[in-house]
Design a protein that fits this description.
By secondary structure, this protein is mainly alpha-helical. It has helices spanning about 25-40, 50-55, 60-75, 90-110, 120-135, 140-155, 160-170, 170-185, 190-205, 210-225, and strands at about 45-50, 75-80, 85. A three-stranded antiparallel β-sheet has the order 1-3-2. Helix 1 (about 25-40) crosses helix 3, helix 4 packs across helix 6 (about 140-155) and helix 9 runs antiparallel to helix 10.
Length: about 230
């Protein structure tokens, strides 16, 4: 005999739902511009004006100025009084600096990831499958985010909080570079997926030196790009 659950009757409330609290205006402008720069909606060389941004976000100009000052400190834009803010292109020096830092951190992390900590291989497999689906759909911005997550998982697996925080500071630069490079070198996404497979295979088999070698080749490609050796 099937039993039934008796639930109390809930009378609809006459009270209006609580309004959703929005972030401060300056934070909304900051997030809008930063996301636009990272996903190339605002490409390098674009001049942004306070009026246009205020209208786009629906705020006054005062929080726009505050947000732009924060973004200038982060090196994403350069302010020009009475003109606006110039979105800075990704420079060869910036690529070289990011590559050098990534090699130092990620080669060390790849070596420490052998033997693989519990759950690492499964997380990397899931991220790789997600990146394949995003690449197949042509969603380069999301593929760049997943690419970054793949490498961050390996860095975090070492358990060194200082290195993890240092690596996290590269996040925005990595994402911006990744999207720009995928657009200018569309064949690179296929190579990236193959190299992620190779990194995963090396970690799965417990071959630390092979994992380090693939990471070095994978990240080192960007240094050739910075020197103008990639066409």
């Amino acid at each position: 005999m099937r039993t039934c659950c008796i639930y109390p009757v809930v009378m609809p409330s006459s009270a209006p739902p609580a309004p959703v609290k929005q972030p401060p205006a300056a934070d909304r402008v900051y997030a809008h511009v930063k996301q636009g720069v990272l996903d190339r909606r605002y490409e390098g060389g674009t001049l942004l004006t306070e009026g246009e941004l205020a209208e786009a976000v629906g705020v006054s100009r005062t929080p726009v100025r505050e947000a732009l000052l924060r973004l200038e400190v982060e090196g994403l834009i350069r302010l020009y009084p009475k003109k606006g803010a110039l979105v800075l292109p990704v420079s060869a020096q910036e690529i070289a600096d990011v590559v050098e830092t990534r090699l130092l951190v990620e080669e060390h992390a790849a070596r420490k990831a052998v033997p693989a900590p519990p759950g690492l291989i499964e997380r990397l497999e899931a991220l790789l499958e997600r990146q394949k689906a995003q690449a197949a759909a042509g969603d380069l911005a999301e593929a760049a985010v997943t690419d970054r997550c793949f490498h961050a998982e390996i860095v975090r697996s070492g358990g060194n909080e200082i290195l993890s925080r240092l690596y996290d500071q590269l996040r925005d630069r990595q994402l911006r570079m990744g999207v720009a490079i995928m657009h200018s070198h569309p064949d690179r996404i296929a190579k990236t997926l193959v190299e992620h497979e190779e990194i995963l295979r090396a970690l799965r088999s417990g071959d630390a030196e092979e994992a380090v070698a693939v990471v070095h080749r994978h990240i080192g490609w960007f240094s050739h790009l910075a020197r103008g050796e990639v066409r």
